[in-house]
Protein 1
Amino acid sequence: MNLQLLRTLQQWRAQKRPCAMVTNLTSGASVLMDENAAIGDLALSAEHLRTARARIAADQSGTIDSELFIRVYAPPLRMIIVGAVHIASALAPMAAMAGFDVTVVDPRETFARSGQMAGVSSMVAWPDEAMSDLKPDARTAVVTLTHDPKLDDPALASALRSSAFYVGALGSRKTHAKRIERLKAEGFSEADLARIHGPVGLDINALTPAEIAVSIVAQVIDVLRAEAA
Amino acid sequence: MTTTFDERRDDPLADLERWIAQGQKAALATVVATWGSSPRPVGSHMAVNETGDFTGSVSGGCIEGAVIKAARESLAAGRTALLEFGVSNEMAWEVGLACGGRIQVFVEPVSS
């Protein structure tokens, strides 16, 4: 690999472009590639190109044959947090540290402003607008923290209509039961509603905002990795 | 309104880019294969410069020292190296994986 190729790789990663570096472990030659392009000093056969593109789609790094190694760079996982509340100020940096691109959504400007953190975007918007902008996908976790039905419910409804891999809602068992009733009335099925982790987080008897954030991040990772395990 | 605070995250490739742009020699070490239990998955990166500074990891601290040494040799010689560590390796008494796993690490100098 040379500096030019490394720079291009870093640009593609910054653009959230799924890509991979394929390296010949004997010669050291490498090629940076994505769905359409392939640049570098390593020429791949049509068959190896096809295999490499399938590996990019599957986010699967590893050896292709005894000589070729592919390192896939998938865009970061995302976490959408609804509610720039106290727990968000612990959850957002923890999730960012775990590798998530985090967006904190809150229509209340003072709340959103107080939540400015490294690696974290904040968005002053109503949750339903934010969700239609952010388009959660299978690599997105959605966590609602406001306790306020007029903020949490629309976000949860959007999350349930998306393929988000994790949906969690803060609130006691009682609050959660009421929430389930409201969403049922909106037409969501038992199976839809079973996707919501509520009360949110692994049960570690968490008390403080930071402890609750640990339990949420732990549960999100558990759900994420359980799929692959 | 969207505000993004994009401080540099833990990214060995960013360190590699910065070192080389500053005129230092630097190499990239990558886990290319693992067998049995191993502390870091395939694709894990560690960046190493000529003075021995490093970021990222290829194991849980078990073999980093040996990989840094190999990376500096690789930089001096200007060629790549494919390293293997594990219980089956004769270096096991010296540098090995306590977890009993086996890993292969590819080291490549990144040219300016």
Protein 2
Amino acid sequence: MSQDKPAREPRLVNPRPRTLIDRPSHFCPGCHHGIIHRLVAEAIDYFNVRERAIGVASVGCSVFLYDFMDTDVLEAPHGRASAAATGMRRALPDKVIYTYQGDGDLAAIGTAEIIHTANRGETISVVFVNNTNYGMTGGQMAPTTLLGQKTTTTPYGRDFRRDGYPIRMAEMLATLEGVAFSARGAVNKPANVRRTRELIRRAFEVQLKGIGLGFVEVLSACPTDWGLKPLEAIKRVEEELIPYYPLGIFKDKKEADHL
Amino acid sequence: MKKLIKGNDAIAMAAIEAGCRFYYGYPITPQNDIPEYLAREFPKIGGTFLQAESEIGAINMILGSAAAGKRAMISSSGPGISLMQEGISYMSGSEIPAVIVNIQRSGPGLGGISPSQGDYFQATRGGGHGDYRTPVFAPSSVQEMYDLTFLAFDVADEYRNPVVVLADGMLGQMKEPLDLRHPPQRELPEKTWALTGCAGRKPQLLKSLYLGHRELDKHCWDLWKKYQRIISREIRFEEVETKDADLVVVAFGSAARISKTAVKDARKEGLKVGLFRPISLWPYPEQRLEELAKTAKAFLVVELNTGQMVEDVKMSVGKDKPIHFYGRPPGADALPMPIEILDQIREVYP
Amino acid sequence: MHSREKMYSDVMMAGFGGQGILLIGNLLAEAALLEEYEVTYLPSYGVEMRGGTANCTVVISDTEIGSPQVSAPEVMLVMSQAAAERFEPNVKPNGLLIANSTLVEVGKFSRKDLEMVCLPFNKIATEMGNSRFANMVALGAYLGKRPLVKLESIGQVLKENLTGKKAEFIPMNMKAIEKGIELVSKSGG
């Protein structure tokens, strides 16, 4: 009989991760940064390394990482997060170092830094948020902007003859020897969120195991600058971004190189 | 015991002695002896030497290691220092201490590799964007390359600020006897601000972004107060026979070194000439110059450029006394000779 | 500290890269330091790794040295024609010019006030068994004329710098230096 059973306390099936600070998000409605922050926080909790973790924030909307992550955070100059993380990694060999960078930051101004950090195989985890434009500065063209996509600096659409092609960072970095793990996920629907949670976790795991650099690109919606409603933005991720930026794992090295 | 040591090597040795174990750099003449020395010596003592992909990468690696509370140094020359200005500005804004060594070469642009003092403005006026200052020390001997680098680490840590050591190709390449003494070390505050993971304390943040209402206003004034403390405590200079001098030669670094001989030769001719050598270029010893302006009849500023520090001399001395300028932005093998400076002394002697 | 008369001496050595100019300048400076003099050694540095001009200035004094850069060196050692042409005019009036007559056209010198020591350093070194020691013969010629530092000090510095397998070159170096000293003493100075 049900009366015999003690009454079950209501319980959150998916509580807020310890590493995620409990405060209202100040990102735009429909922005995916909040979800991605949570996934990073979950990975840090999963490995129980919050007190050992140091985040390196970049420039753009991703800088606000420090408002939400309950870890030490260093704010790096635009594009330089992976170089600053290198300095951190070398200085603190037993800490867990992660960067959180947007597409303008990592794939344009910081290209040299991420490529050489990856090539050195720095044992850091890099979370790369690709929303196909410069969000904070008002929606200008990013290196990841899709062909034909209208931004404030490509008012007639991105044209490859003038602007070149959208760049696929996860695939490119996978070619580098120092990269242990490179993958792309999205957070536009629950199945993708769950999958991306695994990817980010693995990006931390390869660091903790000393295998090399862990890299996860996450496709993200930017409804405000795309000029779309949140639900339309989610649809755009599925219909326009994913076909060009396929989800998946491009490299997963199982053990570290040895001389 | 003294050893015959190259100026650049003296800087590397001082860094090791000062406990610096993190160096990131990128090759550029005429400072390569510094990274080469540390690439050789650091592995023996557990230090980290890393050749970065660029000076931009290197300065941010310094930023990372220094943010972790470690003593870190970087060296370069003109063009490379230009690329580092962004990082120096961020470190100033985030109050992350580090030592930046500029072994100056000639500019602008690619310029040349000969010694120069063309980066005076860049070093003393902040160099990068925003409202900040960095202490600048200008050695003029191999011993000072050592001593002032050592000091730079202490000053950086005491005030949580990047500090510049401004030398040049002549000082970097020349050899002199070096006394490998351990200069007195200051009592320094603990680096409680360092990012080391939040075990046992609240998470910490090092940043330079302040978007809240009047936050940046307060931050800038807080920095200003710190700069005032530096001004009141870190001014350094050397004087040679200035007491009765009618003409005071003002020069720093290599130019001061060469001028010293010219001043001594002028004395032999019976000319009452002295040398005033600022060692800290920021903060500038303006008060002492102002005092000298009461007794001296004229000033002669000698620089290896077309006139940069002369502006600070003008601000310090005022308009009552004539200020002459002799500038030699050198090309290859064209450092001024003492005799050329002596000729100037004779010409402008009051 | 040494107790000597007030002393100041400067020398410029010049030639092309690979002749070992900087090496002998450095050797002299190290020996001077060993004898507790103040000393500065200022090398030229260029963009070329080999074959370009190479020169250095060594100042030795028993008081603080001002400029390591010297307007008119009292002694000039030139090992190549280019160096001879470029630096002859710089020598201090009534100074000493030592020239490597193997590579320098001695007849082209125009100064009349200078004391000249012209010796075929390369030829002498070749006769001794290895032309690479020409720089050491030249250093010997300098030391014969300006015995500011003792030969033993030079030997001591060589010993400190040439260690391990390189130590076998010390006797040959010393022999070349002694030869230089001997040659200028013979010429009467």
